[in-house]
Design brief:
alpha/beta, Rossmann fold, Dna Ligase, domain 1, D-amino Acid Aminotransferase, Chain A, domain 1, six-stranded antiparallel β-sheet, 27% helix, globular
Length: 331
């Protein structure tokens, strides 16, 4: 097996990170087995993908079905693009290895830091990294009386279930609506994402881009940029949460002084970003180097440099129109 002829299983192919990761791997010459729990997932119709449906991560059959898919499809390596599956997937790494499937998964402590917003706040605050003030519902009496706030699911994703409000009373009401909520100070500033690759030795490459237009948590228009303060904050955050592999960091650039408050980090996602193709268009070989690290080769960080000022615009299009049943095979 050579790197560019590997059989790679990509999970969550119905989401933008999974869809674009699968497409780039195909362009690199890999055979991609695209997996999703939703038989209507768009990535199952992507040209060149071997489509497969697997049980949802919360289904007791998830582990057995995923391992069965890996055996049946003679998978060489697995790429996860769904953070919510990591608490179940990480413990499967030894079983995957026994059947010859390579993975590049973070430790469970890092998964918790990336999926639990309260844990993330505590970890980065302890590391001296600026981040929005955060409270649990039982701490609302300590929230500034007239503060602008964001109520969101503590373990949510993609801006789902987010409510903006002002003050304690509105926050209290919003916490009754949002499941397992967390309360954060609302930040005004320029949103950014950092596409990051951390190799097994801890070396980090960072590609920064501003989020110019965001819909449903996905950057529809984004432009690569440089910012030494943001770069340093991103690197410190990745170290604090013990991130590894291909991840993305989100935050805000503000006009605050002193300087250490001009960059606020809001989260780390242990998966590719939904608009990482901007980084690739700017010259960063993200998926190629992810593939190298995944298969045990050295990551070439000289191929993760990039040009600022490259703008990517996404749009919605019709992928396919079919007659009859979905052709994705259930396992």
């Amino acid at each position: 097996m050579t790197r560019h002829h590997a059989r790679i299983l990509v999970t969550g192919i119905g989401g933008q990170p999974g869809f674009d990761t699968a497409r780039r791997l195909i362009q690199l010459g890999c055979t991609v087995i695209g997996v999703d729990a939703d038989p209507h997932a768009n990535g199952l119709h992507l040209a060149g993908v071997i489509p497969r449906v697997c049980a949802h991560v919360e289904d007791p059959a998830y582990a057995d079905q995923l391992l069965g898919l890996c055996r049946g499809e003679q998978v060489d390596a697995l790429v996860s693009t769904v953070e919510q599956e990591l608490p179940q997937l990480v413990p499967l790494a030894p079983a995957l290895e026994r059947i010859g499937v390579r993975s590049w998964l973070p430790p469970l402590a890092s998964v918790t830091a990336c999926t639990d917003k309260d844990a993330f706040h505590r970890i980065v605050t302890a590391a001296g990294i600026a981040t929005p003030a955060t409270w649990l519902p039982e701490q609302l009496d300590t929230v500034p009386v007239d503060a602008e706030l964001v109520i969101k699911p503590r373990r949510g994703q993609g801006s789902q279930g987010v409510i903006f409000c002002r003050g304690r009373d509105q926050a209290q009401a919003a916490c009754q609506v949002v499941a397992d909520p967390i309360v954060q100070a609302r930040i005004r500033g320029r949103e950014f994402t950092a596409d990051c690759l951390i190799d097994r030795d801890g070396r980090i490459s960072v590609i920064l881009r501003e989020r110019l237009l965001t819909k449903g948590g996905l950057a529809f228009v984004t432009r690569t940029t440089t910012n030494p303060l943001a770069d340093a904050a991103v690197r410190a955050t990745l170290t604090a949460v013990e991130a590894i592999g291909l991840v993305c960091v989100q935050g805000f650039l503000t006009d605050h002084t002193p300087a250490h408050q001009r960059v606020l980090i809001t989260e780390v996602n242990a998966r590719p970003a939904g608009a990482f193709l901007a980084a690739e268009a700017a010259g960063a070989d993200l998926i190629g180097q992810l593939l190298a690290g995944l298969l045990g080769d050295p990551v070439d960080h000289t191929r993760l440099t990039y040009r600022p000022g490259v703008t990517l615009t996404k749009y919605i299009d019709t992928l396919t129109v079919t007659n009859g049943a979905n052709h994705a095979a259930a396992q």
